[in-house]
Design brief:
Length: 264
């Protein structure tokens, strides 16, 4: 069994160093050396392609910076705020008693808390982005396949079940569904605020007469929507790559240590 664990550690370490780390570094290079494009420049390019009869087939990998626009703001489920986009999670927190033996062999009882996700919802409405070059917006395919969405957690709270009457979200809940072991619920929201600044990197293409930005046809290129600045995103990715290198080396050393200890 220990040999299997050792091989898993070594395999995971090698994957982190030679697969996931280079992929992260490649994304950093894409971000670092791309030139930001104005939406007006993107429009001009599609218009030029139209004149050549290629507008509907044209695709371009772009980096954009701008602010969110949304025709209809929505209410967040728990904090009841107006936002352009929301991803929310609701988890049931329960407590059960379990028996275990301590170091002296005595049977003891301890309370154990568990979280079970019972709801995970994402906004379905369209969001768009503009910049200072034009009032024409581009559509961000935020719920599309392959979108790396990096937005802040703006609400994170545990509420005992006796306090849930303060939240409209729970008005229709039937408490018969939940046992007496339920302590309460953990609620989280990740949101994009109205007029929020965004950094976007992805592939621009046209749907009808509207420019969309979504996942590139080349799977090696990233599709990122984030509220972070370009500089913060590069720093975060560099830290992630370093963590993969150090963690991978550590996992390999531990795995080899287990194997050597078994052989000798």
């Amino acid at each position: 069994m220990n040999i299997i664990v050792a091989l898993l550690l070594i395999g995971g370490g090698l994957s982190a160093i030679f697969y996931f780390r280079p992929k992260t570094q490649k994304d950093v290079l894409e971000i670092k050396y791309m030139q930001t494009k104005k939406i007006s420049e993107l429009q001009d390019m599609f218009n030029q392609m139209d004149s050549n009869g290629l507008g509907n087939d044209y695709r371009e990998f772009v980096e954009l910076k701008g602010t969110v626009v949304s025709d209809n703001l929505l209410n967040t489920p728990f904090s009841n705020r107006k936002v352009a986009y929301c991803e929310s999670k609701l988890a049931q927190v329960t407590e059960t008693l379990e028996q275990y033996r301590d170091s002296n062999g005595y049977t003891r009882t301890r309370a154990k808390q568990n979280e079970t996700t019972i709801s995970h919802e994402k906004s379905s409405q369209e969001i768009s982005m503009i910049d200072d070059s034009t009032q024409t917006s581009v559509v961000l395919e935020i719920n599309g396949t392959g979108c790396k969405l990096d937005i802040p957690k703006t609400f994170d709270r545990f509420e005992p079940k006796n306090n849930l009457s303060n939240y409209r979200y729970f008005n229709s809940f039937s408490w018969n569904r939940y046992g007496s072991e339920t302590l309460g619920f953990k609620m989280t929201e990740e949101t994009i605020e109205p007029n929020q600044s965004l950094y976007v990197i992805g592939e621009a293409f046209r749907v009808g007469n509207k420019i969309h930005v979504g996942k590139p046809q080349d799977n090696n290129k990233p599709f990122i929507i984030t509220t972070k600045s370009e500089e913060d995103l590069i720093n975060k990715s560099n830290q992630k790559a370093l963590f993969m290198l150090v963690g991978g080396i550590f996992a390999i050393v531990i795995g080899l240590g287990i194997i050597i200890s078994k052989l000798f």
